[in-house]
Amino acid sequence: QKVIVSLIGIVVDMVLVCSLKQTEIQEFNKIDALTKELHRENEMLQYMSMTDALTGVRNRMGLHQDYDLYQGHEVTVMMLDINDFKKKNDTYGHDEGDRVLRETGKLLSETFGEDHCYRYGGDEFLVIVPDISEAEFREKLDSLRQNDSVVMGDSKASFSAGYTHAFLKGPDMLGELITIADKKMYEEKQRLK
């Protein structure tokens, strides 16, 4: 009788241990699934924090994140602005303006590569293309200007652009090139008036 009681105790202990082990495995699987979901959510938040919600191109935070990627490369830096955007936005409405900004971001991404385009502010976009000759960049810019896919109201949207080309040797140099490209863009804008 003692042996039977001992065997029953052992069986009960084994059932309890198996049950606890099964619960432990289930809890581990839940924790693993939650960890993976948290990782996906963090990746999405990081993407959202570096991407302009309206245009889908990178934003200034994305630009700062990318600074190191351009170091040690020859780059062409371009600042681009949609001509008469504010006036047309006020005339045709903000929905139309938002559509034009989205289409401009898409056109820039298709022309220069989505990893190199940034919404800098308002209707200004920044493009930084590494390891491209000035001639090849100019061809892409000419192609962009001839493209008639971005229409605002009753006419094709036009762009003012300024760019510069240099080898990036230090962390402050990219900021300097952006300033130069911005100045050249405004000079072109004034010539077009």
Please characterize this protein's 3D structure.
The chain is α+β, with helices and mostly antiparallel strands. The strands form two sheets. It has a four-stranded antiparallel sheet with strand order 2-3-1-6, sandwiched between helices. The chain has a two-stranded antiparallel ribbon with strand order 4-5. β4 and β5 form a beta hairpin. α4 packs antiparallel against α5. The longest helix has 49 residues. The radius of gyration is 28 Å and the shape is elongated. The model has no long low-confidence stretch (mean pLDDT 88).
Helix content: 55-70%
Mean pLDDT: 88
Structural class estimated from helices and strands:
alpha+beta
**Secondary-structure element series:** HHEHHEEHEEEH
Radius of gyration: 28 Å
Secondary structure layout plus pairing:
Layout: H1 2-50, H2 60-70, E1 74-82, H3 85-92, H4 94-112, E2 117-121, E3 124-130, H5 134-146, E4 151-152, E5 155-156, E6 159-167, H6 173-192
Helix pairs in contact: 3-4, 4-5
Which features does this protein show?
single chain, 193 residues, alpha+beta, four-stranded antiparallel beta sheet, two-stranded antiparallel ribbon, elongated
Could you write a compact summary of the structure shown?
The protein has helices at 2-50, 60-70, 85-92, 94-112, 134-146, 173-192, and strands at residues 74-82, 117-121, 124-130, 151-152, 155-156, 159-167.
